[in-house]
Every structure is written in structure tokens, then in C-alpha cells.
Amino acid sequence: MKRKITTLFIGPFSPPNSGDGVKNDYLREGFETENITNIIWFDTIKREGGKIHHYFKLFRLMIKSQQIILSLNVNGRYVIIPIFWLFSICSKKMGVLYVIGGAFDKQLDNLKSSYRKIFVKMLKRLDGIFVESKALKIGIEKHGLNNVIIIYNPRKDPGIRHILADNNRNKAVFISRVTDDKGVTVLMNAIESINKDGKHISLDVYGPMDEKYNDYFKKHVADSNGIIKYKGVLKPDEVQSILSDYHFLALPTYHYGEGLPGILVEAGMTGIPIIITRHNALPEYFTHNQSALFVEPQDVESLKTEILRLLDDDELYNTLNKGILKTIEPFKLEHVIDQSLEYMERRMWFFTRKYYDPIN
């Protein structure tokens, strides 16, 4: 007799097209591509109905499910992990956590000592905690956890490859949440300074707008005389084709919770050069002058220097193009799903797969 085991995946999905939702959209696509049929998908974003009904549905599904995959940001982790822990005490349940973001270790550090001990005990009930960097793994393990595994932020590779040509030369692009700590202000200042020095370069900005940053950003764009433009929010399946329209992508972020932004993975899959900051775990993934150009956070002058180097040196472009394509291989969706399934199945998780008969 076949085992009837239900797997529940809990996390936010798109829309909005934020990093949380996009990551979970890709994970769902990856599991479904593997023809796994025993996963129920629960969106933590309430789309309709009341909040009580939404939570009641979640509780009912958690009680029903023997295997629970959590893919949550900081707010979701502190709400849903305690619920999983309680259910896992009452009945045998298996669980893993995909950590969204790069500051989970710092968030644990900042908890009150008494609650941190309780929360770490809850985390130990999980079969695995999947993180995106070595630095994050080390930071979490210092709290006594030995179930932390590196599984990267996945992206789908549609096979689009970047080619530098006359139509995209000297065109910069920023794709992320549009707010100050993602480095937008620093980038705009660098682009304007380069133009004032006599070198023409444009900047297009894509991404959801931070309301508190909106007025400042719009004024800066208006004062740029067309050098800087806001182009709205991209759908996930548009990103890599849009990257082909530009010379390089710049993300001079200093965001506190920055892990590995998905846009850098997508850029890597196309081969477009990236200019990023030495911030959090970013130097772990890329190498200066080989797969990325690094600048110091909030440093307009160092950003200008690296932009000008790239604009004037096509050999540097070629090196970065080849280097980032090689670096990003482990982030491909199929690799991440294979790694996830292998880990869970080694811990006696069970997945039902639908196999197709090529003859019939």
C-alpha cells in the first residue's frame, strides 16, 4: 500500500513581486517541475476573507500535514515556527525552513536571552534550516544549532545571454526595491557626477517604490534632465530579457538584512556585469575583478571609479561576463530543488511523484 503523506508549503507568494514572493514562486515551480503531487501550497498573504478564517485554514492544514516546508521572512518565522513547534509536540511532524533574507543570525542575537533559548529550542525541532550563505550558517550555528544547510536562492535560467553592443553601451540599470538603503541615492549621485565630468551615461531604475522615499526620488529624477528614469516594476519573467538592454547592473546596497538579492543571481545567469558593495555576505559569492566589481557602501567616489573602469575597458567586461556565468551555476533552480529533495529524502521525507509514460 502506498503511503499517504501530505506536505504543506507555507510562505508568501507573488504578487507583490518582492524577494520573498519571487523566491517562493520559483520553489513552487521547481517542485512542480519534478512532478511532485503531494504538496499543498499555503500563501501567508491574506488575499480574501477575514484574518481569523485565514489562520483557521492554516491551522487545519498544519494539523493534517505530516511534512511542513516553511519559507518565511522574519515576521513569518516568529509567528509560524512556534505554531509548528506546538503541533510537532502533539503529533509527529517533520519540518524544514528556507530562511528568506540574510540577517537571521543578527535577529537571533537581538532577541532577549530568555526568548532566544526558547526559540532556538523550537528551531532544533526542524530537520533542516536552509540558508543562503556560509556567513549566515556560521552565525546561526553559534547558537547551538547543527541542522543548518547552505541552499542558495534559486532562479530559473531561460538561456538569455548578455552581449555588449552599441545599443546598450553606457546604459546602467538598477533593479530592486527603490529605497535609500538599497543604494539608489548613492548610485544616482555617481551617475550625475560622471555626466557632469563629461562622460555620458544613463540610469534606468526598476522596482517597487518605498513610499517614504518616493518624493525625494521623484525630485532627483526630475532634476536629472532625463539622465535618470524610473521604469516601474518588472514581472519576474521579464527581468532577464530587460537586462540585455543595459551595459551593467549596479546594486550598491547597504540594507541591514541583505542576503543574496535574487536580481544578482538573474544578472549572473545572463552574464551582465554587476557592481555591488562589500556588504554582509556579498563578498562570499563574488570575486572582485573576476565575477563582480566591488565598491564600499555609501561611497560615491569608489562607485564612480568602478563604473568608469567598466565603461572604458571591454576586456574587463569580457572577464566579468565569463566569471559571473560560472559563479552562478549552483543557483539554478533545478540544482536547488535537487539539493533540497536529496536532503529531505535522506531524512526519511516522502514525496509522491507523477511519472509520465512516453509511449502513452
Structure report:
By secondary structure, the protein is of the alpha/beta class. The chain folds into two domains: 163 residues, Rossmann fold; 160 residues, Glycogen Phosphorylase B (Rossmann fold), CATH 3.40.50. It contains 14 helices and twelve strands. The strands form two sheets. It has a six-stranded parallel beta sheet, sandwiched between helices. A six-stranded parallel beta sheet has the order 9-8-7-10-11-12, with helices on both faces. Helix 1 crosses helix 14, helix 4 packs parallel to helix 6 and helix 10 crosses helix 13. The longest helix is centred in the N-terminal third of the chain and has 17 residues. The chain is elongated and about 70 Å long.
Mean pLDDT: 93
The CATH class of the largest domain turns out to be Alpha Beta
Shape: elongated
Strand fraction equals 5-15%
Walk across the major sheet and give the strand order: 2-1-3-4-5-6
Structural class: alpha/beta
Number of helices: 14
- What string, H for helix and E for strand, traces the elements in order? EHEHEHEHHEHEEHEHEHEHEHEHHH
Poorly predicted sequence stretches spanning 5 or more consecutive residues: none
Tally of strands: 12
| Rg for CA atoms | 22 Å
Query: What separation lies between the terminal Cα atoms?
Result: 25 Å
Percentage of helical residues?
40-55%
